[in-house]
Amino acid sequence: MTAWVCHPAMDARGAAGMEFAIGGMMIMMIMFVIFDIGLIFLAQCGLDYGTAVAARWGAANSATVSASTVLTQFKTAASSLLGTPTQNCLSYSSAASVPAGTVCYLVVTFSAGATVGSQLTVQGYYKWAPVALIDGFKATTLKSTVIVTIEN
Quick check: 26 and 33 in contact, CB under 8 A? Predict the structure, then answer.
């Protein structure tokens, strides 16, 4: 009878740990990508909702509309989805005048007096930065534009 002796080349200790190290990294990367895609859709929905509410408010209150009142409505509506950055949101007359590094801003354009038939345009911008630091995901600026015609 021969004794059972493990050959050093057939030692499988640590194989599961090595498989997890390789496979686990890929699974974690895929999870972060899915998480980032969900966050970008959430940010775009929040931006769309905030600009729509602000434009609707501006059209309904055309007698008292100003860039600052539209901005206040945007901050109130979008803060539930976009969070804290919207509280620092500023309003500009054009996208070209926005300083570099601004995270959230609105461009509100309307004709002075806001008469019936004139248009109110609200453009919201939000700089989204990814959670996963993967080369394919770069920081990008999301944009939402709402144009309403003043009817009352």
Answer: no
- Strand 104-110 to 119-128 pairing: antiparallel
DSSP-based helix, strand, coil % in the chain, nearest 5: 50, 20, 30
Q: What is the pLDDT of residues 70-94, one digit of tens each?
A: 888 888 888 887 776 667 777 777 7
Q: What's the CA gap between 47 and 85, in Å, rounded?
A: 12
Those residues with Cβ within 8 angstroms of residue 117's Cβ, 6 or more apart along the chain or in another chain: 149, 150, 151
Domain-by-domain residue ranges, the chain? 14-149
3-state DSSP assignment of residue 69: helix
Amino acid 116: pLDDT: 76
Q: What is the pTM of this model?
A: 0.75
H or E element at residue 71: helix 67-82
Tell the residue number behind the tokens 């599961």, with chain if given. 16
Mean pLDDT of 92-115: 73
CB 73 within 8 A of CB 146: no
